Amino acid sequence: LNPNHLGFNSIVAFRNRYCHFETIWIGNRQINVPVGFTNLAEIEMKLKKFAYRKTKKECLDLPDKLYVKRNIEFTDEQARIYNDIRTEARATLRGAELTVTNVLTEILRLHQVSCGFFKTKEESIQPIANKRLDTLLEICEDTDAKIIVWATYIYNVEQITKTLREKFGVDSTVDFYGEVSSEKRTEAIERFQNDPKCRFFVANPATGGLGITLTAASIVVYYSNSYNAEHRVQSEDRSHRIGQEKKVTYIDFVTPDTIDEKILGALKTKFKLSAKTMGEVVREWF
User: Fold this and answer.
1) Exposure string (b/e) for 233-267, b if CB count within 10 Å is 16 or more?
2) Confidence at residue 58, expressed as pLDDT on a 0 to 100 scale
């Protein structure tokens, strides 16, 4: 931090001035996590003294974004495992056991179950019968448009890629995530943008959400979301940027009354905070 700009010499003093904290336990360790923010008008005035910002909307004439939420019910197996984790901090499937030891692990495991799998104590992955893949296939069959599918977990990226290639042909789908080489990533972007046979781009936002152009897509499916607001904003803009001539539809897969809704709620809160800090209008989202 530059004390000449914001008046603080340390990040601790800065955090204490603008954040509210809550103490949580991670195993035997106690940590403070920010749960809210304060004095936003003050920091906004400080930032305006040396920062100037133009939004994408002010600079570019792009088509609108359209947001759609697709509710997906749990299968009986998913519901049982999900409720077992919430109430007993453990669950079993086909003889394999999953346990959780703290709140952060519980959140992770609940989200994985919502996405159709869980990771056992031995770190093996157990697939769970779910309706997300079927819903994705319905969307893909109902349109000829090119589609980006964002998924938080590598397991889902690989599962979706395999399923789409089996359904629509090997040339129909490219993937983009940590295990893909830089050469293959460049080839994936080129094929998706220019090859009519390549309709689906399946990726992880942490890897593919920054710095690439995917304007061939007019439909973007969020198979799952994470709490990372930057990943969400940046991944949306892979298709909504210079060169896009169509409206872009964003479809979020959400199971009602689960961790999915809590994640969306957290993202909304972060978007509102960002808009308030920067003096912008809050984005329309659901």
Assistant:
1) bbbbbbbbbeebeeebbbbbbbbeebbbeebbeeb
2) 59
Is residue 277 a contact partner of residue 95, using CB atoms and an 8 Å limit?
Answer: no
Those residues whose C-beta lies under 8 Å from the C-beta of residue 109, and which sit 6 or more positions away, are: 85, 98, 100, 118, 119
Residues forming CATH 3.40.50.300 domain(s) in the chain: 58-72+133-259
Instruction: Please state, in angstroms and rounded to a whole number, the distance separating the CA atoms of residues 138 and 121.
Output: 34
**What digits encode the pLDDT tens for the residues 81-131?**
999 998 887 777 777 777 777 888 889 999 999 999 988 877 889 999 999
**Which tens digit of pLDDT belongs to each residue from 146-194?**
999 999 999 999 999 999 999 999 999 999 999 999 999 999 999 999 9
91 in Cβ contact with 118 (< 8 Å): yes
Task: Find all residues with CB under 8 Å of 44, minimum gap 6, and list them.
Answer: 277, 278, 279
Asked if 200 and 174 touch (Cβ cutoff 8 Å), the reply is yes
CATH fold of 58-72+133-259:
Rossmann fold (3.40.50)
The stretches of 169-204 forming alpha helices (DSSP H) are 182-194
- Distance, in Å, from the CA atom of 207 to the CA atom of 234, rounded to the nearest integer, reads 11
